Amino acid sequence: MGGLPGHVPGQGKKLAQAARLWASGKLVKPDEAHDDGPTELDAAFAAWGLRPDSTPATRAWRNFYLWPCNESTWWLWHRLQTQWRIGIHGREGLDYNGVTAYLRDVARIKPRELDSTFSCLQAMERAALDEWAKQRKS
User: In 3-state terms, what secondary structure has residue 93?
Assistant: First the structure.
């Protein structure tokens, strides 16, 4: 896979937004059922391996776009889903030893890009944890 692009201002914020939508269930896999016919927006999401949920409650956010510079980190995020530490209330945080080993040994992220990649993943982790905490309260 090689290294990821250098840090882009706002990159962590955009990825956190994507993780929040993912954690809330508002992004679904492309192969899951879709109750509307395909739209131009569906094609744009599909280009990134995503498909928006089509329920009325989620139609308001259908203008979410993942920046091209975030694509590699987004796919890393999905490959790291086996690295969650699980506690009494569910997922409590990523196992940073496992994440670091994966980034270094499997994804082969270059040392100079490791800090920015890890920061983006932490932003996504925090957003997902916040979303799940909000869901538990409601």
Answer: strand
